[in-house]
Amino acid sequence: MKEEEVFPTIGADGFGRLVAAFYRKVSTDDILGPMYPKDELHEAEERLRAFLIQRFGGPQSYSQQRGHPRLRMRHAPFKVDIHARNRWMELMTQALDETGVSEPLRAILLPYFANTATFMMNHP
Fold first, then answer.
1. What gap in Å lies between CA 93 and CA 97, rounded to an integer?
2. Residue of 28, 32, 84, 124 with fewest CB within 10 Å of its CB?
3. How many of the other CB atoms lie within 10 Å of CB of 12?
4. Could you say which residues of the chain have pLDDT below 50?
5. DSSP single-letter state for residue 103
6. pTM of whole model > 0.90?
């Protein structure tokens, strides 16, 4: 399976379930939760959902609404250290498990998430 085949396989609903499961965990997390104002979690969820849909072969709605992703720039105000990176991965892996995302999708999504989470680190 290729990256651009992920969206046709999982669809908007699949990404919606995955991201919703992830943000349910973020809302009560002691490391990631404080990075998100409680009244902005829904918007963050929508942005991640749209980004992942676009990134993995779906409609380009994210870029049409927000322009280039500029992930590092958009996350620069937040302290993303190894603890935040690892917790992000932990919660996303739990969300993948909870929503039943299986191989071969996991073989594409997990390395992408791990590499991107590492790339987002901006503090030692």
1. 6
2. 124
3. 15
4. none
5. T
6. yes
